[in-house]
Amino acid sequence: MSKTRTIIPNGFSIRKIELSDFEDVKIVLAGLTTVGPITLCTYETILNYWNSVKLMNKPSEYAYNTSVIIDDHTHTVAAIGTIFVEQKIIHDGGLVGHIEDIAVNSDYRGQKLGKLIIDYLSEQGEKLGCYKVILDCDVKNVGFYEKCNYNQAGIEMQTRF
Amino acid sequence: MSKTRTIIPNGFSIRKIELSDFEDVKIVLAGLTTVGPITLCTYETILNYWNSVKLMNKPSEYAYNTSVIIDDHTHTVAAIGTIFVEQKIIHDGGLVGHIEDIAVNSDYRGQKLGKLIIDYLSEQGEKLGCYKVILDCDVKNVGFYEKCNYNQAGIEMQTRF
After folding, report:
1. SS3 of A96, please?
2. A79 Rama sector, left if φ>0, alpha if ψ -120 to 50, beta otherwise
3. In B, which residues are within 8 Å of A87 by CB distance?
4. B101, B132, B154: residue with CB nearest A88
5. Which residues of B touch A33 (CB under 8 A)?
6. A35 vs A109, A153, B46, B59, CA distance in Å?
7. Superfamily of domain B12-147
8. Over the stretch A111-146, which tens digit does the pLDDT of each residue have?
9. Whether B158 and A153 lie within 8 Å, measured CB to CB
10. I need a labelling partner for A7 at 20 to 30 A (CA). Which of A51, B5, B20, B152 fits?
C-alpha cells in the first residue's frame, strides 16, 4: 500500500513535461544548477529519447518520467522533477527509482510544491513496481526529505570530468 | 583527460557480462545483497533489455554497462559492477553516470579488484561523455571511494515499498 497519496492543491495540476514547457523549464531548472545553451531542438530530442526508453516488463510504461506542476491560472511551470527507473539483477530482477533534478519556481516557494512533486514522483515509482526510490541531496535538505517519508541511507560520492 | 587509466593485473580480464556468467553472478551479487530466486530466463531478459537501451546521441553505445572481472585461469567472475548513463536536460542535455551494485567475489578480496572495477566503470562513463559519475555508499566505504578519485557530494535518501 502506498505510503503517500498525492493531493494536488486547488489551482494546480501535474502532468508530464511537454515541448511547450521549454522556456519555463529552462527558467525553473536554472534555479537548481547550470542549464547551459540548450536549444529547443535538443530539448525536443531529449523528450523523444525519454519516451523511447520503456520498462522491461511493462513496455507501455516509460523508464523516465519528468513531470511538472502547472499553475492552472497562468499556465506557468511552478515545479519540476524527474524519476527514472533502473532495471537490476538483484532483488529478483528488481527496479529502483532514481529521483533527480527537483526544482521549484522561485515565485512559488512556500507552497509545499517541493513535497508535492516528491510525493507524486515517489508514487509513480511505487506504481511502476520499484522496491525502493532513492535520491541524493545536500545535508541541509535531509529534514525536508524526511518529511517526504525518506530516510538517510548512505553517502553520495562523485567524480567529475 | 582521464583521471584514471585502468591497469588490469596479469591473470585477469574485464568484459561485459554474458549469459554464461549466470551462476557466478548470482554468487558474487549474493555477497552484496538479496538476489532472490531469479531464473536464467529472467537474467537473459535483463541482459537483452540492457542491450536495448541506447544513448541518445550515440546509438551504437549502451546506457547500461555491467562488466565483470574474470580470473583467466579459472574463468570465474571475480568482481562485478554496473554503470548506467542518465540523459538530463541540465548541463546542456548532459549525461550523468550512475555506478551501482559493485561486488567482489569473497575468494578474491585484498587484490584491489574493487578499485579496478570502479576505475574501469568510471572510465567508461567518461568515454561516453558523462560530465560526472556518482554512486552511493555506506559511510564506512567513503575512504575506499576517495582512493578511487571520488569525493563526498551529498546524502543518499531512500523510501522503500
Report:
1. strand
2. beta
3. 46, 49-50, 64
4. B101
5. 90-91
6. 20, 29, 33, 24
7. Gcn5-related N-acetyltransferase (GNAT) (3.40.630.30)
8. 999 999 999 999 999 999 999 999 999 999 999 999
9. yes
10. A51
